[in-house]
Amino acid sequence: MQVSGGDLQRLRQLNSLGSIRALREASGPLTVSELAARTGLSRNSVIDVITGLHECGWIAEVEPAPGGMGRPAKRYRFRADAGHVLGIDIGVHKVLAVITDLAGRTVSSGRVAVDPHAARPERLEAVWRAVDAALVASGLSGTDLWGVAVGSIGVVNREGTVTRVESLPDWPGVDLAGHLGQRLSCPITVENDSKLAALAEQRLGVAAGVSDLVYLHAGRRSGAALILGGRLHHGFGGATGEVGLMEMTGWRTMATDLENSPAARDAPPEDAARVVFTAARAGDPAALAAVDAYAHHLALGTAAMVLTLDPELVVLGGGFSRSADVLLPALRRALEPHCLRVPDIRPSTLGEECAALGAACLALTHVDEHFFSPDGSISRPSAPRRLV
Amino acid sequence: MQVSGGDLQRLRQLNSLGSIRALREASGPLTVSELAARTGLSRNSVIDVITGLHECGWIAEVEPAPGGMGRPAKRYRFRADAGHVLGIDIGVHKVLAVITDLAGRTVSSGRVAVDPHAARPERLEAVWRAVDAALVASGLSGTDLWGVAVGSIGVVNREGTVTRVESLPDWPGVDLAGHLGQRLSCPITVENDSKLAALAEQRLGVAAGVSDLVYLHAGRRSGAALILGGRLHHGFGGATGEVGLMEMTGWRTMATDLENSPAARDAPPEDAARVVFTAARAGDPAALAAVDAYAHHLALGTAAMVLTLDPELVVLGGGFSRSADVLLPALRRALEPHCLRVPDIRPSTLGEECAALGAACLALTHVDEHFFSPDGSISRPSAPRRLV
DNA sequence: TGACTATCTATGGACTCCACCATAAGTCGG
DNA sequence: CCGACTTATGGTGGAGTCCATAGATAGTCA
């Protein structure tokens, strides 16, 4: 429990924040009475608070609802369009940039394919192209952005430096915050892509509201991320969910083993997994064996995390989650002998944009700091001028 | 971030809580000016707040400090002696009860040895004897207690029921809260003993202030517990830290393997481990091999948790931690090949009372709810009358 | 048109925090 | 021993915030 307390102005701040939060989380606009009920304040105080917020431009008045008894009540909504944030996902094959409003709704996006063997400068250039595409599509400029978060493969430490990558030899040490800071003047956060995908699923996707979950990235790369106590668990050096590094789990080779299965029928590597899953769906014995072997190894690493954390939910994400109808039952069977209680397992719902959306969610966490100026008064919605 | 806000009375509550917290966490008594600096309030407001707290009996005035310039300032301290809590650790061989004041300082304790094969009623009877001994030693009666927490071996679920035990066949399903509630009328919490030991080390012991840590119980039984984000991680069904259930770690047999080592020289089982560690300390090759084998298995499970969570610290607790000078370097060596970064490893400092002290810490978490009556005004220190 | 309902607006009161100033109670130097 | 200095105390008044209450307002419904 965090005790804040303080000034009378601070009390007003807290009540303003409570009202903003209620409006943000509500499904539609709210009347004064509804707000009073949700915040626990009296009618009168709510009016004081919202007139302040209204004058500054944080909330907008909406047409009264038609029908109903009594005098029609004014309705207010949070002005999610008052600002925007940018989420970027830098993958091996692509860069994806997503711009959302303050409610996390996608406004525009830009996608740029990248050669898996592209060198660092080329990849960084692709980042700008994806960002510019998203900016153009939204009609915004870089100075309109309130916050940016970037997802990268590899281990990202507390300072935002990429410290360890398997797939991209020249990627470790890249200064993403510095690179983006050349043209963007808002706060920039760097985080691992699987962690951001987990965050997106917890905020917007299949794990909405779940406070303890394990996110599995099952694809040509394998990884995991954790949400614990409702918050992304970053770890001391950012190296969480790296249970696949234990040789006994077989995570290092399980994806290529699947692709090299005879059931892949010499399909190109990027299609092999899909072919195997399709064959398994049709009942092909070799494909079923390959999927079971993959699920067995995935379950070993997953069991280690489940036995450690006893989460409420496991989310199956990554490219292979498109074949969840085949993979998920196999994974559940493979987990059974290892776990005391097999947690609920659900496939990811957000698809390819997952990590970029998670990045936007992370960037939004800084928005709360925009509501008040340093002197304690309510400030007007505006993008930050300088880097924090 | 938890937004509270509310009434003016609520603001006073928050400021009172802040002052109480500052006084509790301070090393000695504080003057009004010092309190003003720590809480961020003005002198005047602090005086208002503490006169209220003083009148109700939550804080006491202390002799002014001798020496120093200017008019001597009144000094105040938190009245930790205003109430007491009880922590109980029910082990296989013993029951330990500890009574602490509101600052967590031990006031008295009671210890009762129990036959490892004792049946449930006998063990529950031993609990009362330990509790009564602690009560007598402190001069308190059961109605003076503000809260009780009990640590038990086995998995304890969210409702406080013991769901799974390996060592005691008739223990699962025992209703500890109900049993203690027959004679105690304060809130009663039940938790796993290793979790409580972890909590004690984080609050009072070697892990003071560390927010992410793994606690290892290394002894004749093997277990683990987690502190994540500064809070005890309970898990969905209470089954966290159960990584030893994976056969490949060897946790199930590693302790008996150590005791059956030739280096134990036919010592009785309860002494065997100590004999082996002593021999290893002297350089005996067979003992060193046995310790290395034990450390190897312990490291397998630990690595799974470390790779999952990337904690700041690993605390080595349990009976074997008395031989940390031998075991800890072996554990560190065995972890090296598995981890990206071997975290800091420190031996437990609280010894046998660890779990009981942790229980008292857990019971203390409910004390904050005693400061104010339901109507919002400051209440007088008093033990709760009825079960919550 | 009138009864009913729910909201809006205005007034006054209670409470909390804060700035300011005079006073009290020590120490230090002569 | 006495006065200057330092620091804490206590009292007063002002500003800000929340709340209760009462009357005015704007719809629906019969």
Overall description:
Chains A, B: Belongs to the ROK (NagC/XylR) family. Chains A, B: This is Putative NBD/HSP70 family sugar kinase. Chains A, B: It comes from Nonomuraea fuscirosea. 2 copies of one chain form a homodimer. Chain A is an alpha/beta fold and 388 residues long. Chain A is 38% helix and 19% strand. Chain A folds into 3 domains: 5-78, Arc Repressor Mutant, subunit A; 83-199 and 353-371, Nucleotidyltransferase, domain 5 (2-Layer Sandwich), CATH 3.30.420.40; 209-349, 2-Layer Sandwich (Nucleotidyltransferase, domain 5), CATH 3.30.420. Chain A has helices spanning 8-25, 32-39, 43-56, 120-138, 176-181, 193-203, 251-259, 269-282, 285-309, 324-335, 354-364; strands spanning 30-31, 59-62, 75-78, 84-90, 94-101, 106-113, 145-152, 155-156, 162-164, 188-192, 213-218, 222-228, 231-232, 313-317, 344-347. Chain A has a 5-stranded mixed β-sheet. In chain A, strands 13-12-11-14-15 form a 5-stranded mixed β-sheet, with helices on both faces. The mean pLDDT of chain A is 94. At the A-B interface, helix 1, strand 12 and helix 9 of A face helix 1, strand 12 and helix 9 of B. The structure holds a DNA duplex (30 and 30 nucleotides).
